Amino acid sequence: MKPAQISQPIAAPSSWAELPWGEYYREALEQHLQPWWPKMFGFHLLKLGGLSTEIATNQCAISHQVNVSSQGENLHVIADPRQLPFTAKSVDACLLAQTLAYSADPHRILREVDRVLIDDGWLILSGFNPVSLLGAARLLPGLRRRQPYCSRMFSQTRIIDWLSLLNYEVLYCHRFQVFPWSRKKSGWNTHLPLFGCLGLIIARKRTIPLTLNPLKRRLVKPALSRALGATKSYRQPPG
């Protein structure tokens, strides 16, 4: 497995229009996010990265929405996503549309987002699927330096592993847009979602551990067994 952190940064597009079929990607992503926006409540929504700022979020119940990126247009805050100028636990939701795909250190971005998110805050992640037509096209030498083939394509399983280490509960995980050049809903998205070019993960930050510590369970069980055994021998009649 390739390391998540690399030495050289990747040039990130500031608009979906800079990507081949980028508007189709944006429309498909907005369509899958539409039923989730009314479920999110709070005071502040961060949209990290130039592509995130162009995602329509007018149906989101969070009214104060802040566009954050190191470069681009229509920004409210110019900052590096790895060093956000916000206090800890001050943000209710974060949208990262392809942000990890153009990051040299995605772990650092996730840790920074985790710092600013409140408990039970929402995290929305999208990225390119390596097991798709886009991933297959990266094998062609002439395309590896072009957009979006030059981006980093992490599998959803790998991203979910990163989120589990930060104690996030994944509520939704889906792949779609099998054919990047199509705006229509096709049967391929229904029958072969594994090969969708886009992947979407919606998760929430949890404070209570999602799994019990097996070591603690092993330590407690013998003590209970001995106590029960002593009780049985005490109650046993003599002779």
TrEMBL record:
The keyword Methyltransferase applies. Residues 72-125 form the Methyltransferase type domain. Keywords: Methyltransferase, Transferase. One of its GO terms (molecular function) is S-adenosylmethionine-dependent methyltransferase activity. The keyword rRNA processing does not apply. One of its GO terms (biological process) is methylation. PANTHER family: OS04G0481300 PROTEIN, OSJNBB0011N17.9 PROTEIN. This is Class I SAM-dependent methyltransferase.
